Amino acid sequence: MAVSLMPSPLLMTTLIFACITLFLFPSITESQQTVITRHYQFDVQMANVTRLCNTKNIVTVNGQFPGPKIEAREGDRVVIRVVNHVAHNITLHWHGVRQLRSAWADGPAYITQCPIQTGQSYVYNFTIVGQRGTLWWHAHISWLRATLYGPIVILPKLGVPYPLTKPYKEVPLIFGEWWKADTELVIKQALQTGGGPNVSDAYTINGLPGPLYNCSAQDTFELKVKTGKSYLLRLINAALNDELFFSIANHSLTIVEVDAVYIKPFKTNTLIIAPGQTTNVLLTTHSNYPNANFFMEARPYVSGQATFDNSTVTGILEYENPKILSSYSFNKNFPLFRPILPAINDTSFVTNFAKKLRSLANAQFPANVPQTLDQKFFFTVGLGLNPCAKNQTCQGPNGTRFAASINNVSFVMPSTALLQSHFSGKSRGVYASNFPIMPLMPFNYTGTPPNNTFVTNDTKVLVLPFNTSVELVMQDTSILGVESHPLHLHGFNFFVVGQGFGNYNPAKDPARFNLVDPVERNTVGVPAGGWVAIRFLADNPGVWFMHCHLEVHTSWGLRMAWLVLDGSLPNQKLPPPPSDLPKC
What is the pTM of this model? Predict the structure, then answer.
C-alpha cells in the first residue's frame, strides 16, 4: 500500500500555528543537552501613558511600562531582537549579566556598540553563566532609561532549590522616577546651560506613583497577600538619580540576595537600595487576618547638596480575608498603617546596613575573593567644574559648568564604539590608553577642596592583561560637597572588601579588610565623604564601562572604561562582532 508523504491539513495547521506563536511570543527551544535558548522580541515604540493627571508620549518596549520581564535559568542562552521604531537612537543594557566573552551584547552606547538607529535592529545574544537571582535591563543612552526598563529574573538550574525558604509567590517591585517633562529635553537643557537638571515629579513602584501624589489614588501598586505565607519580593532601583529607603508598615523583611548573589540572611524593617542595585527580600505575612491595610513606601536618601525630589511613593499591602473567598477589595474602614522611614540624610543607617551584607561563602556558593593582587588602583570620584565657553552664560557655580570625574578625568563619549575600535586595531584618535591609576595631583580629598576644581576632559581607558587580579579603592571628594556615588562596573562582579569615612589610609585600612565573606555586587555606593575598596578578577575580555549610576553624574562625565585584553587560550578571547552590529 502506498503511504502519502504530504502532510495532512491538520498537521499543516498545527505547524503554521506553532510558527506564528514562536514569532509573536517569547519562546523557548530546548535540545537533548539541556541547552535552552529563550527568544524575545523587543519593539521599541512610543506609547501614551497618563500619570499625575498628565498624559505623556514615552519610549517603551512593546508598548509596556515598565517593560516586559525577561525570565531564564542559569546556563540558558538569551536572544533578544531589538527593533527601533522611534526617533531616538537606542541601546539596551542587561544590567549585571556577566557577558562572558559576549561583550558585543553588553549595550552601553559608544562603549560596546554604536546605537540602533531609527528603523534598524540588533540581536543581543548572550549566555547566563554562573548567575541566578534578580537583575534588570534598561536603555543605555542619554536619559532614555527613565521609561525603558524592566526586570530580569534568573532562576536556578532545573532541580536546584533556593538556599532559603521556598516562597509562596515571587513579585518584582521596580522603583522608578517620573517626569511630567520630556527627560531628553531635561538633560539637553542642563548640558546646554551647565546647570543642574530639573528634578523628577514623582517616584513610582512598578510604574505607579500612589495616593500621596496629586491625582494618583487610582495609580497605586497593590500587593495582595494571604496570611501565613512567604513572598519573595524582587526589588530593583531603576530611578535615575536617587537612592531610596524602603519599608512596609508593621512587617519585617529578610534580605536574602543582592545583585543576583545570595547573602547571609538578616532581618530588617527598612532597607536602602541605590540606582542600579537589586535586592531580594522575603516577606512573611501575619498568621492571622490583621483587619488593617499597610503602606509600603520609598523615599530618597540624600547625601549631597543638590536639589532633589523630596516626595514619597506608596503602594498598599492588602490581605485576603480567609473567611470570604476572593476578598481582596480595599476596605476603607480598616486602619491604614504607614512605615517609619529614616531621615533623608541618615548616612549612619546606610553605613550600618551595608556592613550587614555578607556573602554565603559556603561550599555551594563560595566567595572567591582574590587573595593575591596583580594591580592596585586608587580612584577619586566626585564633582568638579568646566569653564563657561566664551560669549555664553552658564548656570553652574560662579558662572561655570557642572562636571564630574574619576581621577579628575571627565570622560568624553567618543563618536564610535570603543570595543569596535579596539577589536579592529583602529583606536588612534578614538581613545587613549593612559587613564591615570591614581590622582595626578593628590590633595586632602575630604577636607578643604583645592583652589582649582576644573576637570580635564578626555576619552581614556585603563588596560588590563587577561586574568589580572585587581584591587580598586574609590574615594569620594569634597569638591562641591561630599556625596554618595553608586558605581556600577559592567562585565564583572566584585567583592566589597572594605569601606570607611575620611581619606583612605593605605598603611592602616587594609588590615580591616574582609577577605573571607565580603558581599559580591555589580553596583556599590562610595560613601559620602568616604571610600570603598573592591576586588575583582579581570577574566572577561572586552571594553567594560564603569560609571556612577546617578544619571546626572554620568552625563557630567563620572565614567571611565576598562580594556581587558585577550588571554592566550581560545576560550579567553573575544569572538568577532556579530554581522548585525550597528554602525555609527
Answer: 0.94
